[in-house]
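Internal tracking record. Fields below are filled automatically when a chain is submitted to the structure queue. Please do not edit lines marked as system-generated. If the sequence contains nonstandard residues, flag them in the REMARKS field before resubmitting.
Queue: standard
Priority: normal
Entity type: single polypeptide chain
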Amino acid sequence: MDSFWLLITVAGPILLALTLAYAIWRNRRETGPGDVAHSDRAAKRLRDQLDQEDKRRDHRTTTEA
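SYSTEM-GENERATED OUTPUT FOLLOWS
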């Protein structure tokens, strides 16, 4: 049983460190022009959708009053 806890105590932090290193590496990779363009298009769609929802809500509020 002691060897099991030794394995967990040693392997756990190593596995955690490797997982964190991989996550940091994946987030810092170079982004290509396609990634930036895709993000910009998605942000524009979201802004347009939110604007439409605001206009519908404002229209309903003014007609009900």
